[in-house]
Design a protein that fits this description.
Shape: globular
Distance between the termini: 36 Å
Strand order of the largest sheet: 1-2
Strand content: under 5%
Helix content: 55-70%
Structural class: mainly alpha
């Protein structure tokens, strides 16, 4: 029973990692930009959820009706102001730009919010449902379920809607898509907005579980990159699977080995996967496959 409890805890933790990683993999799969400010977008959404609760009295889950559209707009703004001017620049310039944006956002948060740790105290977030000897945290289950639902909805969106098909076309061949009348800049802007909205959803859902502070994004973003690469760059299902795998490894190694070693263990697994399958668990070699399976 102890093993099963640890396994369930790992799956729920993996849901957190997966939900944060889905937006990152969507952005990379379409725009081909590695967004090092992804963690800071998460930080902004967590602060937004916190202030919706502390000022407006909105439950963090209800605050999503404000936070998610707000982060969509933030994402579109970042794409147009920061990413668009360097869209065709060498990749190192894009990396420097997003790293610079990350530093700016962290320091702005320090100026306006200070370095204090803030949290939301909700009775609901602490509730645990017992099924025999197994305890299930309701708030973590919500995040886990949200990760699965979001991955499924994005998969449907990309495969079944006109906008999704345009996004796929741009990801597969931008020049051919342009010849077919698709506006790449519009698609890139919408995609970055969607990716930011997804991490905004993650920020609102995890706010009852974690403290928010200016550098909280760094706590999650490294793991998110591991999840994205492990699952296959640009692959939605891969990001979900990668998040769950990392969560389970994190939980099992932290319990049975040493909490200080859990990062080492999942990095070893990560390196082994890359050694034997460089494209990731569900990735495919070739740009035409990026992000859309």
């Amino acid at each position: 029973m102890v093993f099963l409890q640890v396994l369930i805890n790992g799956l729920f933790l993996g849901g957190v990692y997966a939900l944060i990683s889905l937006g990152l993999t969507l952005i990379f799969g379409v725009i081909r930009v590695i967004n090092f400010a992804h963690g800071e977008i998460l930080m902004i959404s967590m602060y937004a959820s916190f202030f919706c609760f502390s000022i407006l009295g909105l439950n963090p889950y209800l605050s999503l009706i404000i936070v998610v559209p707000g982060m969509f707009l933030v994402g579109m703004f970042i794409d147009q102001v920061i990413i668009r001017p360097i869209r065709n620049a060498p990749s190192y310039m894009q990396i420097f730009a997003t790293v610079g944006l990350s530093v700016v956002l962290i320091n702005l948060a320090l100026v306006f919010f200070s370095g204090d740790y803030r949290s939301i105290n909700l009775t609901f977030a602490k509730q645990v449902v017992h099924m025999g000897d197994i305890g299930i945290s309701l708030s973590r289950f919500i995040v886990f379920a949200a990760a699965i639902v979001v991955a499924w909805l994005v998969w449907l969106f990309l495969g079944k809607t006109d906008m999704g098909k345009q996004i796929r076309a741009i990801a597969q061949d931008r020049d051919a898509a342009r010849l077919m009348g698709i506006n790449p800049n519009k698609i890139y802007m919408i995609t970055f907005g969607l990716g930011s909205a997804m991490v905004g959803l993650a920020g609102g859902l995890i706010m009852p579980l974690y403290y928010v502070f200016p550098s909280v994004g760094a706590y999650f973003v490294l793991t998110a990159f591991v999840v994205v690469v492990l699952g296959g760059l640009g692959n939605m299902v891969g990001a979900l699977l990668g998040g769950l795998i990392i969560g389970v490894i994190d939980s099992l190694s932290g319990f049975y080995l040493d909490p200080a070693l859990k990062e080492m263990v999942y990095f070893v697994v990560f390196l082994l996967v890359l050694l034997f399958k460089p494209s990731g668990l569900m990735g495919m070699i070739g740009a035409e496959e990026m992000g859309l399976k």
